[in-house]
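WARN retry 2 of 3 for item q-0093 after timeout on previous attempt; input resubmitted unchanged.
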Amino acid sequence: MMPDRLGVLSSTRYVIDHARHVHLAVDRLRAVCSDIARTGVSLPQWNRELHWSDGEEETAMYIFVLDSLNFCFWGEPRWTITYKQQTLDGYWALAASLRRAVEEGVPILDASYLAEMPERDLAHVLRGTTTIPLFAERLAHLHELGRWLVSAYNGQCGEVVRSACGDAVALVQRVVSELSSFNDIAHYDDHVVRLYKRAQILVGDLAGSLDHKGLGAFTNLHELTAFADYKLPQILRRFGILVYEPNVAAMVDTRQLLAAGSEEEVEIRAHTVWAVELMRRELEKQGLTYMAYQLDWWLWEASQKLPGDARPYHRTRTIYY
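OK item q-0093 returned
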């Protein structure tokens, strides 16, 4: 699933739109990679405090549930939860809320239950300071996941994973072809842009949560791309690697909504994928070998520590990231 296989854009109207900006962005990319080469990348470890895990099959099921719901956390007021005296928001609030549900005995790891999960039960699982954005869509995703597993895989996500025979790309393709909620594609002129953010992160999460063993063992994780979301373009822009056309920059900076599937939004995501791939290639030239998904994890962790004066991420209401 390297970018050329995905059909990611090679042209642009809204991101890095002038030759001078291209030159500056390339210089910044090389400088950032030189800094990384000097200090190295400390790859984040799987967080076993906030994620739930207990045995291979059930851990894999937790990951499928997690990544069926892993999208669109922004809003005012922000959705937060309290778990073990910690106040959490965004992705970490989701991970912990699912762990909390398992600990409370809610059968969210049972496909039959997910297939008919009542709205009130999901509201209880995701209870927090406010209602999580796109609540109805999240419930629909769990219903789709549960019914799919029951009808085609004996209710076992382990069967789905084993059907890919350790091929990360094959698993991504199976998930996006059989679950509409994961089929993250866009159309740009005559291009079909296959970004597959949540399906790819599902594979990466299986590998991370299971220590690359059993259901988490894949032979070709290097074929995954970066997971194009909100936070990666934000930090790449801060590094000077992504440069927006002035009107788009103003929209992002004033938190105006970018429509899902709009040219601006598709370009931001597509160039995020390419930027991380170019970083990977530049680091390889400097003697450091990382996979795109590993750089993604490092960039995402770094994005969580941006200062308060950092320019915002783009706002798009979508189920795909």
